[in-house]
UniProtKB/TrEMBL annotation:
Gene3D superfamilies: 3.30.70.920, Winged helix-like DNA-binding domain superfamily/Winged helix DNA-binding domain. InterPro entries: ArsR-like_HTH, AsnC-type_HTH_dom, Dimeric_a/b-barrel, Tscrpt_reg_AsnC-like, Tscrpt_reg_AsnC/Lrp_C, WH-like_DNA-bd_sf, WH_DNA-bd_sf. GO terms for molecular function: sequence-specific DNA binding. This is Transcriptional regulator, AsnC family. It comes from Enterocloster lavalensis.
């Protein structure tokens, strides 16, 4: 990946529906060269896919929470992650070092729904402890970092 690929990625990050024609004008390459570079990044797995970013509140999900999870033993890892992968309200799951094994990002309609999700997670075999944090306000939510993006001061 070179600097030109980074420039193309930055444009696609801002708008995944940007046309190759518009990208070519911005980076001063031919449309076919832009398409070739995008195709290579897709085939290499650098670009994993394209998606829609949905406003959770507009969808009726007014509660966002971060839940830390501890497992009794590593043997529960696979069965726990299988349950998490199948739950529609769990947006992100990270395996961690430190006092807790996982942190989950949960989006749901209400504190009552969060309580039901919490009970579901607590009932998964091997879960020994949880700690839940309500998100008061989302300050920053960036889906990927691209090399060469300058930090704004």
């Amino acid at each position: 990946m070179d600097q030109m690929d980074c420039r193309i990625l930055h444009i696609l990050k801002d708008n995944g529906r940007e046309t190759a024609s518009d990208i070519s004008k911005k980076v001063h390459l031919s449309v076919s060269a832009v398409l070739d570079r995008i195709k290579k990044m897709e085939e290499s797995g650098l670009i994993k896919g394209y998606t829609v970013v949905v406003d959770s509140k507009a969808m009726g999900n007014d509660v966002t929470a971060l839940m830390e999870i501890s497992l009794e033993h590593p043997r529960y890892h696979d069965s726990f992650t299988e349950v998490i992968m199948g739950h529609p309200n769990i947006l992100d799951c990270y395996y961690l070092t430190g006092d807790y094994d996982f942190v989950l990002k949960i989006s749901c309609a209400s504190s009552d729904e969060l309580e039901r999700i919490h009970r579901t997670i607590k009932s998964v075999p091997g879960v020994s402890a949880t700690r839940t944090h309500f998100v008061l306000k989302e300050i920053k939510n960036t889906y990927s970092a691209i090399p060469g993006e300058a930090a704004e001061a």
